Amino acid sequence: MSIQVLVVEDDADLREALVDTLELAGFDYLEAESGERALEVIAENPVDMVVSDVNMGGMDGHQLLEKIQQTQPCLPVMLITAYGQVNKAVDAIRSGAVDYLMKPFAPDALIEVVKRYTGTQLNEQDSVQPIAEETSSKQLLQVARLSLRPTLPC
Known about the structure:
alpha/beta; 6 helices
């Protein structure tokens, strides 16, 4: 099973850097250049996590977080920004964001948060995936993976 991360960033170069980082870590990704487009992508595709810039034209990251919380409160959303304000970060976490990263950040910081909230292995030597052929075994593995995710306020 692959993990699908939606990257929402209006700066094309930064969006490319973020998806390259995710791809190198083995994640699948979808892209959106705006909060409005992100909501369309989420409605059309299964997504395991959203990584969104805060400062975008139109709908900003905080507004996107609010909309996602209304429709999919268990979908992890991480906000990233170059303009960090402690009160905005606190508000975002209180509103349901799983994390709030300040740009620039190390690629490992992004990967660590995505792994934590998608239930993927944090330890590279543990990244061997079990083989399951029976439908019931696959379902059991899915339940086990979901139980490893940090609890989100749903």
